[in-house]
Specification:
471 residues, alpha/beta, Fumarate Reductase Iron-sulfur Protein, Chain B, domain 2, FAD/NAD(P)-binding domain, 3 domains, five-stranded parallel sheet, 16 strands, globular
Length: 471
């Protein structure tokens, strides 16, 4: 079987043709049927599988792999979606090296671990390929199979106990919550301020892991369950919290994080200095494929996964030099070691124990260099400054928190980190009608963590409502 065709891109999905991200190829292409079955047959199908414990959504990994080995790809996909409705994107973007694959028993024997992420991608892509067209009413199905076959993942019909939920933000947490609510028979309406849904899956994931059109393909998978997604609607501007609390039985806050954090150094404002997530979003959604010719010499400030991603992207797009500047030693970097190694392979170099102290511009305001100082404990050491010539500076030192959204919902609190206070197991906040999940409560973890948050919140809402109805 050939690789699953990429879903339609361009205007059909509200994206311009020839975007810059299209120049970055898929780092881990979909397995062929033969490759998938050969890899699946290596699995030992452990009873006490450590890979399950390492997955935040607790997918039954041995079961879905065994189904692939036996040729039951549709059953494998159903096993995945029961626990992770966004298994399609998580298969690509999860840091499996430190999650399921990292805990595979083969590692202890110094043998190659099972490529769980690639097997999950094979199953979910193969089973949902037909949903690039209009799916059958009542749930997402593989329309290439018999019409009598049940949907892979179906919505329940409305009952006397059905409730209505408003979800703020169309990222992974809200999409997962809405999808599971639909399977439990409730109505779900997502409000997204951007013109396109999907959250960071659409706007921020490195293209060599997930292109924007593939993220939107997954959004359609969720929409086909009967989820109402309204884009261009901002809470506080177009609709207010009090109205949502009055019109809906519950509200889920999946708002993610805010704008890129600034360096707050002299001459930062001006051309050539970019917030990392803002630039990645432009690269993925708007910038034309010939828009990398002006990258030149690139400096990325930061040591997390976003910093590594933008550095790797710039190098792959043809920048003449890419340097990462990090204020502490390599051992303190929050970015994954395997991601940094991949960046090094495409030419990214790391300047550790270094901190930017000023942006240097010429007489016309054009960026010419970043002034760097050696650092101790993350602080600049006076008298150690030097210039690092550059044409592009990317700032990847974190994102602001969206404090203002909580003012719309009485009882919802913010902690000392600027995150929404919510029970990590249920998503409950200080307001009994408001739940929350994803980056806005954890400060910025993985897509799979956001999916787990959304799923758990949906199940907790349903349990509360059914318990109340039967009381």
């Amino acid at each position: 079987m050939p690789d699953t065709p990429r879903p339609a891109s361009g205007p059909a999905r509200g994206l311009p043709e020839g975007r810059l991200e299209s120049r970055l190829p898929d780092a881990k292409p979909t397995y062929t049927e033969a490759e998938a079955r050969a890899e699946a047959e290596r699995c030992l199908y452990c009873v006490d599988a450590p890979c399950i414990k390492a997955c935040p959504t607790e997918i039954d990994i041995p079961t879905f792999i065994k189904k692939i080995a036996s040729g039951n790809v549709r059953g494998a996909a159903r096993t995945i979606f029961e626990q992770n409705v966004l298994g399609y994107s998580c298969a690509r973007v999860c840091p499996v090296e430190v999650l399921c694959v990292g805990d595979c028993v083969y590692n202890g024997w110094h043998r190659a671990p099972i490529q769980i992420g690639r097997l999950q991608r094979y199953a979910t892509e193969t089973a949902t390929a037909a949903t690039a067209g209009p799916p059958r009413s009542g749930g997402v199905v593989d329309t290439a199979t018999s019409g009598s076959q049940a949907p892979l993942f179906a919505a329940q019909t409305r009952s006397d106990y059905s409730k209505r939920v408003a979800l703020i933000g169309a990222g992974p947490a809200s999409l997962a919550c809405a999808a599971y609510l639909r399977t439990l028979g409730h109505e779900a309406t997502i409000f997204e301020k951007r013109a396109v849904p999907g959250g960071l899956n659409t706007t921020g994931i490195a293209p060599y892991k997930l292109h924007a059109e593939d993220a939107l393909h997954e959004v359609e998978w969720v929409r086909a369950l009967g989820v109402d997604i309204r884009t261009g609607v901002e809470v506080g501007r177009d609709v207010v919290g009090s109205q949502l609390l009055a019109d809906y039985d519950a509200v889920f806050l999946g708002v993610g994080l805010g704008a890129d954090t600034r360096l707050h150094i002299p001459n930062e404002d001006g051309p050539g200095v970019h917030g990392a997530t803002a630039w990645i979003e432009e690269m993925k959604l708007a910038r034309a494929a010939n828009g990398a010719s002006d990258l030149g010499r690139v400096v990325i400030v930061g040591g997390g996964n976003t910093a590594i991603d933008i550095a790797r992207e710039c190098a792959m797009l043809g920048a003449s030099d890419v340097a990462m500047v990090y204020r502490r030693g390599p051992e303190a970097m929050s970015g994954y070691v395997h991601e940094m190694e991949a960046a090094r392979k495409v030419g990214v170099r790391l300047l550790s124990n270094a901190v930017p102290v000023a942006v240097l511009r010429d007489g016309h305001g054009k960026l010419r260099a970043l002034q760097i100082a050696k650092s101790e404990a993350g602080k600049p050491v006076a008298g150690t400054e030097y210039e690092l010539a550059c044409d592009f500076v990317g700032v990847a030192i974190g994102q602001s928190k969206l404090h203002t959204i909580t003012t719309q919902f009485p009882g919802v609190q913010i902690d000392t980190r600027g995150c929404i206070v919510a029970d990590p197991k249920t998503g409950r906040t200080g307001n009994p009608k408001v739940y929350s999940g994803g980056d806005c409560i954890n400060g910025g973890k993985e897509v799979v963590n956001a999916v787990a948050d959304g799923r758990n919140a949906a199940h907790d809402m349903h349990a509360r409502w059914t318990a109340h109805a039967s009381a």
